[in-house]
Amino acid sequence: MDQRTCKQQTGAHPPPQRSSAFSSTRPPSRALPSLVPAQKTGSSMAAVSAPADAPAATEDAAWPTLPSAPDATAAGAASAGGGGGGDGGDGGDAPAGGDAAVGSGCTDAAPVAEAPSYPLTVEYCPMCGLPPEYCRFNSNSVFAKCKPWLKEAHPTLVPELFEEGELETKLAAMAVDAEAATASANAAADAAVASSLTGPKLVKRAGGRSTRVNPEIVIHTDQRKGRKQVTIVMGLDLFDIKLADAARACKKAFASGATVAKSADNRDTVEIQGTRAHEFADLVRAKYKVPAELIFIVEAKTKKRAFP
Amino acid sequence: MFKRFTLDESVAGQSQVKSSLQRSIRAKILEQLPAIEPYLEDILPKKDKMVLAKVAGHVNVVCSPSAEPLFFNIRDGPYCPTLRLLAKYPLLLPRMCVDDGAIRHVMQGADVMVPGLKSTRAAMDDVRKNAVVGIYGGSKEHPLAVGQALMGTNTIRTVDKGVGIENWHYLSDGLWKCPTLS
Fold first, then answer.
1. B83 CB within 8 Å of a chain A CB
2. How far separated are the first and last CA of chain B, in Å rounded?
3. This protein's superkingdom (chain A) (predicted)?
4. Across the interface, which of B91, B139, B152 has its CB nearest the CB of A9?
5. Which of A29, A196, A257, B168 is deepest in the core (most CB within 10 A)?
């Protein structure tokens, strides 16, 4: 089918449209050695030169006679290239059968078919609207919807590795397993960390006094000069996290500046440039195993009475 | 180009064109796509009024009287058939086959890179720089996208990277999703 449309095109094009620049300008002596070692390059070149037209055919026909290619396979490949030039029906001096052996994406199917009649009728998938060949390049969810129709109309286009239903059950089983595993692991880790971390801690405060506070991480955003936002994290020290380490991790994770700073009430904080509250919450949970219920984000300012 | 195209927002206006303009558009299309000649009367009948839609991004879309998009061009650039038309008349444009691995990306609007055209599963017709070409999947029959070759075939063979074909209009983009502009 591919072959046929290719050929149709070749036949129907008027000669000037088909530029022969490649075959005529490329020095054959350079082209041939690349044919010899690698079938890969050979095939693509032969395929490419296949649609060359009458003016090019003389050039093409000259290729196999070059003395620099004694290797039989090279000569074969070259004659395939020459044959491609002839099979438009106007060169005619080289055997046209050669290029079928040289498989390429465009020309690897059936022999030349009947004369084309345009317009071709084009079939589109009723689900996604694309030509059926391209259905499987949709997202998986869309492709799943195309499948029933595709299976009926074009069974060859459905890649089916598992039997019907088997894949789904397997996937479902895997999903359940994974979910359970991660859930239990998370719970265990959280519990372990929580037991060691919860409970009030002694913290020094301004003025030399000490108070007991419940460890928790509080993240809020603030503005600096103009509309520049910073994210300020308090309470990391309560979890025995080194602030400098945390700042460095932030720099790496967010590719932004992060520093250790003292807050107004003399608490150690990490200041991250930009609004990173939620991302930091994820980071601190994943990296330092801080239990999720101890991480807080302060958002939207509340409305207050002007004259209480 | 048509990635964010929507019928409501992107079409600034549609109008029937004057017959003189219609003649010149027909002549231009015929000049740029000589292969169309036997079929031009089927595609754009002389006696029917064609409709010209102005689209965001200085794009003009030539439509049939029933508002079916047929060709488009950018500013005064070359006319390019839409994919639905090209699928019916694949002879209109040179055929550039890309590696199967590139299909997914081209269908999301990516330009075609040189390595995707030089793979063993790819194949190229000989084209000059700035030619309008049809982009096909390596083992596929139908066109996947249309675009403009930013390099001639000869240059593509000599370089190893870079954009080979600029993607103008691809399967499942905004224009594709509008079989008619009405």
1. no
2. 20
3. Eukaryota
4. B91
5. B168
